[in-house]
Amino acid sequence: MRRRNTATKDAVLSVLHSTGKAMSQGAIEKEIGVDINRATIYRVLNRYCEDGVLHRIVADDGRQYFALCVECDKKQKPLHHFHFRCEKCETIECLPEPVHFSISNDYKVEKVNCVLTGICKDCVNS
Amino acid sequence: MRRRNTATKDAVLSVLHSTGKAMSQGAIEKEIGVDINRATIYRVLNRYCEDGVLHRIVADDGRQYFALCVECDKKQKPLHHFHFRCEKCETIECLPEPVHFSISNDYKVEKVNCVLTGICKDCVNS
DNA sequence: AATATTAATGCGACCAAGTTGCATTAATTT
DNA sequence: AAATTAATGCAACTTGGTCGCATTAATATT
User: Which nucleotides along chain C are within 7 A of a protein C-beta?
Assistant: First the structure.
């Protein structure tokens, strides 16, 4: 099941690159310009997550947001980092702040999902 | 708009007390014994959150879970604490582990939502 | 104790996010 | 150029959660 290159996949990646933030399917659909089916966008995003190109954040609004893993690398973000969801501009940002925790070895931790919510620095002064 | 005491509200609280964990509407409905409407349970839960009796956690499954704030107090949990969602027994636990982070003052942080996901200590040995 | 007030409930309809089945299209292999 | 099968579009569906509205019942008032 080798992956194939398509215009849709490229378009999704380029939108994520250009905004530099984590985006929901809806936000991507709005920004992407061309008309791409909702289900297709979800499938592209899910595939990228499987392939380690994107990571998925579930925010406290219950929705999924997707962010480039490369973006995180560039800014030297740790594997598990905080995310900030701005309620005004409706974007999610990967923060350089690492998530630290200690937990009994009896627990098997598989995923870490930390989201701060509020007004981001761009929106707080406007 | 003074709150009124009802059997439904008591039943919801007592289920949460008896399990000692954060529960979704669905889990509460299953455990509660009596037949209570879905919308009503949600309304009860939302009211309790407004009143500071419960707090709401949105897990990485995108669903809302509700936990007693008193439970947290008892175990001396900090205001912002980690939560652990077990994928096997489908419960969420409030952990005593506090959430620490530092972020630029330019951001206005209003909510903190941190969930670890995996297999809890009760399920890992079974 | 009887009545008035209005919060709480049940029901059904509704919405939004996300997924899935299936026929069709098109990227890669041969 | 033909064959293979991943990717897409569409519609239907699922699930979590909310809302409007008529009805019920907890509290306040008499």
Answer: 6-13, 17-21, 26-29
Q: Where are the domains of chain B?
A: 7-124
B7-124 CATH choice from 1.20.120.1630, 3.80.30.20, 1.10.245.10, 1.10.10.10: 1.10.10.10
Partner-chain contact A113 B60, CB within 8 Å: yes
Nearest to B66 by CA among A99, B51, B124, A24: B51
pTM: 0.91
A117 neighbourhood in chain B, CB within 8 Å: 109-113
Q: pLDDT tens digit string along B29-49?
A: 999 999 999 999 999 999 999
Tell me the CA–C1' distance in angstroms for A2 and C30: 16
ipTM of the complex: 0.90
Compute the Cα dihedral for B78, B106, A25, A13 and give only its sign: negative
